[in-house]
């Protein structure tokens, strides 16, 4: 049902149209209202939408220009047609704006300070953490359920074996069929922590990572780097003891590789200064610090010597 406001607007437009056809003068105040209305109506419409609306109107009015008419009627008919076109374009602009907001403009949810829950049409629940923003297209849910996320959020995804749920974040995406997980984004640091079910994490330049419950994917804030970490339940001390399950580098400098390995294996790595910027591509899966350091030395064509927790790479 149309609102009374819309009916009043429609009446106002046709009142002005009647004045135009009968050549009555339009007041300055009415012109001012029309200009303000036109500005508001077109503000959120792109040029392509406006052009298509105009083309549709002019196409519908084409018959008035090609039918043979008496010479004495041409001037009046053209003026009538242009007046109708002007009114229709104005109505299409307003109608197009209403259509865009109703059927096409994505829904955007933000959490300014505290957490905010968003209930999606498929039954999924998203808890936006402070400062997060979730964008959901009007077509959601489709055959593939896709949302876009800025910031941090916890997802409880409604299960569906045939309709994957994909969260597109900053430079990486998480694909699930139904599960509970948390996405964190802080500057260059990205991570996905899984609580229930299974997820697949895709990140440019690295293999797809498949997580199980109590596992976490992270890039350690380094491009083309991916790791899967086991995060077991809290022990009696209340602290979580993590374990590195896999580690992948694709064209990453030795300096960055060494920093990641030192932090995760609690070791110290010494290497020639001239090799610091050398690019490394390697997959370390399930190995100990000793095994992975041997593999790193082999890739670099160096020898590795260990003393306590210090690994020295030499020519």
List keywords for this structure.
single chain, 315 residues, alpha+beta, nine-stranded antiparallel beta sheet, seven-stranded mixed beta sheet, elongated
How would you characterize the overall build of this protein?
Helices cover 35% and strands 31% of the residues. The chain is an alpha+beta fold and 315 residues long. The strands form three sheets. The chain has a nine-stranded antiparallel sheet with strand order 2-3-6-9-10-13-14-15-17. The radius of gyration is 31 Å and the shape is elongated. It starts with a helix and ends with a strand. The N terminus is likely disordered.
What are the secondary-structure elements, in order, as H or E? Answer: HHHHHEEEEEEEEEEEEEEEHEEHEE
What does the overall shape look like? Answer: elongated
- Secondary structure tally, helices: 7
- Spatial sequence of strands, sheet with the most strands: 2-3-6-9-10-13-14-15-17
On the 0-100 scale, what is the average pLDDT? 81
Radius of gyration: 31 Å
The helix content is 25-40%
Number of distinct beta strands: 19
The major β-sheet equals: 9 strands, antiparallel
**Class per helix and strand makeup:** alpha+beta
Low-confidence runs of at least 5 consecutive residues: 1-6, 63-72
> Strand content of the residues, in percent?
25-35%
Gap between N and C termini: 81 Å
Q: Report the oligomer.
A: single chain
